[in-house]
Design goal:
- The chain is built from no helices and 33 strands.
- It is mainly beta.
- The termini are far apart.
Length: 241
């Protein structure tokens, strides 16, 4: 196992992992470390994380930039996160983080704040069999999924025990934008003070959705669905429910 502690990674650049690349099979703990102002030409401005497991504790990920995952890109791994701030990062897909095929379990102090994506997932873009748990997502922006975008083309993804507030989407899903070819599970999530053209709290524009024990308050849509904009598709058709 590798431990990185009390370090600063700044003004670095690479194609994959501007600050840090964690390879297949790795087990890494990053503690009390700053990841700031790094650039990933394609993938992960800050940390590119694969491997068996990754622990983040007392980490700040700030002002990094990439196409996929401005701050973090995490795939095929298990992440334990505590006292982590991911803020002011930019990307095209996943301004704060791009997470795929991963279990991400944060504590109440794991925050994605003030990040921006040009396309999808201002705070977090989560794909394909990702469990995203215990995060706070505030003041992020994107075209779709200002706070969180959950997109599952393969495998069930879920979101739970999260607070998503004051995010903005120029099109759909101010707090949360959902799309799947099967079904998504969203439970114990608070969505408040988010804005969007459609679906200010959340917008479901794909397959089935199981929404349970959630709170949607004070969200504002510029067109349709202040709290939620709920559609599912069958073949080439979309059907409201």
């Amino acid at each position: 196992p590798v431990t990185v502690q009390d370090c600063v990674f700044s003004d670095n650049s690479a194609d994959y992992g501007g600050a840090m690349f964690l390879g297949e099979g790795s087990s890494v703990s990053i503690i009390d470390t700053e990841i700031e102002n790094n650039d990933g030409a394609q993938w992960a401005g800050g940390i590119y994380g694969g491997g068996d497991d990754l622990t983040l504790s007392g980490v700040t990920v700030t002002d990094n930039d990439s196409i996929y995952g401005g701050g973090l890109l995490l795939e095929f791994t298990t992440v334990t996160s505590d006292d982590v701030m991911v803020d002011q990062n930019t990307g095209t897909y996943g301004g704060g983080a791009y997470i795929s095929d991963t279990v991400f379990e944060g504590s109440g102090t794991t925050t994605f704040d003030g990040n921006a994506a040009d396309d999808i997932g201002g705070g977090v873009l989560a794909l394909n069999a990702t469990d995203l748990l215990g995060i706070e997502v505030t003041s992020n922006e994107s075209e779709f999924g200002g706070g969180v975008a959950l997109y599952a083309a393969e495998g069930l993804s879920s979101l739970g025990d999260a607070t998503i507030s004051r995010n903005n989407a120029t099109s759909g899903g101010g707090g949360l934008w959902l799309f799947s070819y099967d079904s998504l599970a969203v439970s114990s999530v608070e969505l408040s003070g988010n804005t969007a053209a459609n679906g200010a709290g959340l917008s479901n524009e794909g397959g089935g959705l199981v929404l349970s024990s959630c709170s949607l308050t004070d969200n504002m849509a510029r067109a349709d669905g202040g709290g939620a904009y709920l559609y599912t598709f069958v073949g080439d058709w979309f059907t409201a429910h």
